[in-house]
Amino acid sequence: MELFKKTLDPVVALVIIAVLDIFMFLTIGAWTVGGGETMMTGLIAQLFLGDELSRIPFWELVFPPDPGYWKIYISLGMLFGALVGAIMSKEFYWRFPRHLSEWVMITVGGLLMGIGIRLAFVCNVSTFFGLTPEMNLGGYLAVSGILAGAWVGSLVYKKVLEG
Amino acid sequence: MSPVGECITAFIFGSVVGLLVQRSRFCNTAALRDAMLFKTYRNTKALLVAMMILTLGFTTFLTFGDGKPLHFDVGLNQVMGLFLFGIGMVLAGACTVSTWVKAGEGNIGAVWALLFTFIGMFLFSLLWSFSYWPPAPGTMSGEPNLAGLQLGYANAATLQEKTGIPAVVFGLVQFAVLLAIYRAIRRKETAAEHAKAPAGQGAGAASAGAVASRND
Predict the structure, then answer these.
(1) How is B90-115 classified by DSSP, letter by letter?
(2) What part of B 17-36 touches A (C-beta under 8 Å)?
(3) Where are the beta strands (DSSP E) in A10-120?
(4) Where are the alpha helices (DSSP H) in B64-166?
(5) What is the residue range of the signal peptide feature (chain A) (predicted)?
(6) For the segment A115-146, what is each residue's pLDDT rounded down to a tens digit?
(7) Cis peptide before B134 (omega within 30 of 0)
(8) Using CB atoms, which residue from B28, B74, B171 is nearest to A137?
(9) Which of A72, A144, B84, B148 could make an S-S bridge to A36, C-beta 3.0–4.6 Å?
(10) CB-CB neighbours of B95 under 10 Å
């Protein structure tokens, strides 16, 4: 199949995703990722801590762990779809970051993403594919934050790459 | 829709997104980073096109009161949170979407990034439990709460309520702004192609370059 031989134009891919996202918006809600990831965090923490977890107010008041939360399944679907795409186009292979500096950057980057998502209540997907197209004030605030952050991040990234 | 139906719909949507993103190499991080660092706009253009379609789609349905928009008060925490997120995604080389997609391709670095996103969220949940800030969405009122640094809640539907102007009109304004940004990027790209094309065969080479860049 042609799809698995050539790289797809990202504009085509995003047009299809946007149309599907509108259907999602009409039935359950626009595409987001951060909420599902938070729920997964809660479920994983519950595995380790059991009922102790409910003594942390966040998991009692804001995100009581619930495996039936639909946003979790968007993320799992993305993992599944990418796996199918990679296997069908023979692009699946294990990749490891080579240098210590990469591991450090990814670790710090991951932590900052997690903290940022929870502080803002939104992730980059809900910013660009949910809030801003709804013309939500939070979308504009989030876009200005992410642009400034990506700029600072790019400066750091460049420094690490060159240094 | 039943909760199970919601989960199945979400899974199918996610699968299509994962497949398309994997095949197109789209990445939200690259859309911002490459534009700032390398002045290339392959992903930025795709992001803008999606936002234009979504703006028209969402605001059209909001006009008739359809759809399920996100409801929560917004405030300075959005700027601060996404600022941290922006730094993080460039350092990790992946956003919330591409961590899942790259993990599906066998990228252990992306799995590591995901793991630490979870850890970051858990750390923040501990911090939140001391401060209860930002206020949880469920406790928000939609009115400005300046003590909590929350500005209230507004979108195209609330603008429609306040002004009586259909939401889609605001959507068209935003569409025009996004289109202007898109066209500015296209102009920049065309100018760069002209500069690269050798003198004499300018027009032909430039149009060939334009085709090549569309196929990249």
Answers:
(1) HHHT--HHHHHHHHHTTBHHHHHHHH
(2) 17-26, 28-29, 32-33, 36
(3) none
(4) 76-92, 96-104, 108-131, 156-163
(5) none
(6) 999 999 999 999 999 999 999 999 999 999 99
(7) yes
(8) B74
(9) A72
(10) 30
The token pair at B78 is 């959005």
What is the predicted ipTM?
0.97
The 3-state DSSP class for residue A33 equals coil
Residue type, A132: T
Look at the block and give the residue holding tokens 């003594």: A55
In angstroms, the CA A80 to CA B105 distance is 10
In the block, residue with structure tokens 């206020």? B135
Helix (H, G, I), strand (E, B) or coil at A68: coil
Q: Hey, which residues 5-24 in chain A have their CB within 8 Å of chain B?
A: 7-22, 24
Could you tell me which chain A residue has the CA closest to the CA of B214? A9
Asked if B165 reaches chain A (Cβ–Cβ under 8 Å), the answer is no
**pTM of structure:** 0.92
- Please choose, from the candidates B180, B188, B177, the residue with its C-alpha nearest in 3D space to the C-alpha of residue B35: B188
Per-residue pLDDT of A95-113, as tens digits, reads 999 999 999 999 999 999 9
- The partner residue sitting opposite A74, judged by closest CB among B14, B45, B92, is B14
A114 closest CA partner among B100, B93, B119:
B119
Q: From CA A77, how far away is CA B21, in angstroms rounded?
A: 12
The low-confidence residues of chain B, meaning pLDDT below 70, are: 198-216
Residue B83 in tokens: 């600022």
